[in-house]
């Protein structure tokens, strides 16, 4: 068994993971089948207190119960941090990514912009406010890839006919430089 599989079983990183890796070596030397290893370790992770005095699994159970392991384990929130969505018909996966991010214990609030789409740790077009935490992975690589903002000092009545709307659209396209390496031609 490798580190990733142990972590997926719920073994926290740090002293508990180190103890689990040692246990895997021991069980491997005893030729315990992989599926049995998984089962045993899963039982210890589920209820470490009942294995504390066990000769074979006691060191893992003790490590699981240590202060360090408890601090490093994920504690699910009772209620997600609040978040708002601007825009409709967004990719369901992007909405789910922000929902998942708002489950984090450090999350304070979130927002999903109208250009949101699936990202890495957080959807592109997603914003997550956190408390005492910086999450470098909670950002996409094409921030603001489809959002344009232009401030135009014109009365709304200018846009009532097609000519006015076409003039505005052309002005925005001409006067807005956007994207990687974007520059005005003149």
Structure explained in plain terms:
With 186 residues, the chain is an alpha+beta fold. It is 39% helix and 11% strand. The chain has seven helices and three strands. Strands 1-2-3 form a three-stranded mixed sheet, covered by helices on one side. The longest helix has 15 residues.
How would the blueprint of this fold be written?
Blueprint: H1 3-8, H2 15-29, H3 34-46, H4 58-65, H5 67-72, E1 83-85, H6 92-101, E2 107-117, E3 124-130, H7 162-175
Parallel strand pairs: 1-2
Antiparallel strand pairs: 2-3
Helix pairs in contact: 2-4
List keywords for this structure.
7 helices; three-stranded mixed sheet; alpha+beta; single chain; 186 residues
